[in-house]
Fold this protein.
Amino acid sequence: MLGCTHGVLFKTTVAGGSYQEGLSINIQGVPAGYYFSEEEIYVELMLRKPGQGELTSPRREADVPLIFCGVNAADTMPGFKNQGYTNGTPLVILIPNVDRHFEHIDQYQQTNRTPRPGHASYASYMKYGEFDDAIGAGFFSGRYTSSIVAAGCIAKRILKDHGIEVVSFIREAAGIKMGNMPVAEIKKKAAAYREVRKLYDPIYLDLYASGKMKNDLRFFEKAAILAELETRIPSIKKPVYNEEEIKERYGINPKIFCPDVEAADAMHDKIVRIMNDGDSSGGIVEVVVTGVPAGMGEPVFNKLDGELGRLMSIGTVKAVEIGCGMEAANMTGSQCNDQMHIENGKVVFDSNNAGGITGGLTTGQDIVARVAVKPTPTIAKPQHTIDKVSLENRELAAVTRRDPTIVARMWPVVEAYTAMIVLDNYMQHIGYQAMRPKK
């Protein structure tokens, strides 16, 4: 594969697959002097896993990250306190697979000849032939998005130090749309959602809240903890919570992150109804970036809105729009233009139809983008397909081990990848600005 690296100054390379030993993330461009805990990375990875109830994936992958390279193994000199801090070399994070269910391999082997409609299994076979990593969908499984989330966690920490924040959420699911909400309120809801998920995530409680998994353990000590965890995963029980109490206290639905709790309830119910009919559903994820300076971007071929179009690289994403997006086609110039004026010596825009980007450069407004997430290809209904080896017509049987929707798991991935894109462009921007002539 030649397409597994992203970025210019914040450069990320990912590798691995659903039934390989795990996934790896190699990040170049992380500044020296940062301390990243595996716990904070896990908290982001945890968000990919839906909460309790009908939206929960049958696979219970732990998604425990291990920082492997890029940090100091000990304090480097007497008087220095830099153990565990980044040292400027590539930061490498591993995410071992510990819930691979090898008893299902025979099932995969039997069904891999008949590709799922809507999935990459036919196209990947045409590219890689008999050596295609088709067990558990390989690199085309949603498992690989954990690598994006891990890299995005690092990017978000660095951006936040520079006053830039990224927040994502479910704007629409199964045809149910939420209303408008101030971004400050959305950020509060996102923080509350993370807190609730930590309180009721069995892996977080077992490894991190207990103090069992710590950054300063050696790699083999951490690997031993994961090996022991693998034997217990089937028996680890999820803590039971009272959904109504959580809604009352935190103002969120713990099963699906739409900050409008009434809309979230309606989304959940509609997703479940569609699932009970044997089908799946999609939705729209929105991401907002605050605190960006004006003038960031690199025209012509690296305009920032074009770079955000790379969100299409996330599996299941079928469209990306910036600002008013497709609606611009039906607007007049007077409706679409973001008029501006001066208040207290500062530029103020009357609207943000441009999504914070004009000419490929930031305006200083919030960056606003949305992605369309398609329905899960794997459904509990028979579908027409082929035998990709013998080239005969076949019928694909209904599949019960499946996600009823992917949108519930995509918002943290969109948030993470957006952070990677924005940080890479921000680093280029401040470097370019720093090279202006000295007065």
Q: What stands out?
A: The two ends are 48 Å apart (CA to CA). The domain at 5-434 is CATH 3.60.150.10 (Chorismate synthase, AroC fold).
